[in-house]
């Protein structure tokens, strides 16, 4: 059942072994992580960021003719946690088709919205924006501590 995956949240704590600001590179792309403001005890639904990162690589980095990038920032803002994933974005579907990539069907975003709704009801927000050659996904959730 879909709700079961949200009933067992994960914490940001696994990032505690990672430098708070870091980057990694692969092929023709790189990712940068800004986690200085990330609350390590925040509860998150499982598989919240992974599909967004996969989309950023598949639709942004892989079809790029130059070096592609993915930027991830997570921070606490009062009683909220904000996660932002941003990547290069090809402006037209023709360029993606020519590069052998198909346009997405938004299934990953729909699934994430459903998980957020099941876990946080109407307290969560997921927004996407494409502007100036960049794709930006913002997820904002209530801060809930998993500390014991």
Question: Can you walk me through this structure?
Answer:
The chain has 148 residues and is of the alpha+beta class. The protein has one domain: Histidine kinase-like ATPase, C-terminal domain (Heat Shock Protein 90). Helices cover 26% and strands 34% of the residues. The protein is built from 4 helices and 8 strands, in the order H-E-E-E-E-H-E-E-H-H-E-E. The chain has helices at 2-7, 50-61, 93-98, 107-120; strands at residues 10-11, 21-26, 29-34, 43-44, 68-77, 80-88, 125-131, 134-142. Strands 2-3-5-6-8-7 form a 6-stranded mixed β-sheet, with helices on one face. A hairpin with a 2-residue loop joins strand 7 (125-131) and strand 8 (134-142). The longest helix is centred in the last third of the chain and has 14 residues, at 107-120. The two termini are 27 Å apart. Residues 1-9, 11-20 and 94-98 have low confidence and may be disordered.
Topology readout:
Elements: H1 2-7, E1 10-11, E2 21-26, E3 29-34, E4 43-44, H2 50-61, E5 68-77, E6 80-88, H3 93-98, H4 107-120, E7 125-131, E8 134-142
Parallel strand pairs: 3-5
Antiparallel strand pairs: 1-4, 2-3, 5-6, 6-8, 7-8
Quick recap of the structure?
With 148 residues, the chain is α+β, with helices and mostly antiparallel strands. The protein contains four helices and eight strands; from the N terminus they run αββββαββααββ.
